[in-house]
From TrEMBL:
Gene3D superfamilies: Immunoglobulins (2.60.40.10). It comes from Streptomyces ovatisporus. Pfam families: Big_3_5 (PF16640). This is Ig-like domain-containing protein. Residues 39-124 form the Bacterial Ig-like domain. Residues 1-30 form the signal peptide.
Length: 151
């Protein structure tokens, strides 16, 4: 019996296998652009009153996960909260001084969605001062005596 030696090109086989894997592999999910909108409810509050900040993130892929949404009052971080299954992130804030606040909601992105942001304003006014009671006695009545007789 005669033995034949078959020469193999192992390098060519490796390259062919790699090309097949790359060509037929499922591509990884690519990041998609996102948009963020923010609302303040209510948009005008008194000092110390709560305002709900609601950011809604839109993306063709799932925007949850990642670092969520960071809410800013000007340059000050208020909070970072996760994006829920309903694509929203919510934070309740109160403000100690009157003025117009610029609120930014910055979606921080994830492996599937790019970052995005939006701004809104909150008008914070001084708490109303209760009215001063009148100095003169009220002419609206006083103590009444009622007698009921039954026969």
């Amino acid at each position: 019996m005669e033995r034949r030696r078959v020469r193999t090109n192992w390098w060519g086989s490796v390259v062919t296998a790699l090309v097949a894997v790359v060509a037929f592999a499922t591509p990884a999910a690519a990041q998609e652009p996102s948009t963020t909108t923010v609302q303040a409810v209510p948009a005008s509050v008194a000092v110390g009153a709560p305002v709900e900040l609601v950011a809604t993130v839109s993306c063709p892929n799932d925007p949850s996960g990642g670092l969520g949404v960071t809410f800013f009052d000007g340059g000050e971080i208020l909070a970072t909260v996760p994006v829920g299954a309903d694509n929203t992130a919510t934070h309740t804030a109160t403000f100690d001084t009157a003025g117009t606040r610029t609120i930014t909601a910055a979606y921080n992105g994830n492996g599937e969605c790019f970052a995005s942001n939006d701004t809104t304003t909150v008008t914070v006014s001084e708490s109303p001062t209760p009215p001063t009671p009148p100095l003169a006695p009220c002419a609206c009545g006083g103590v009444y005596n009622i007698n009921i007789h039954t026969e």
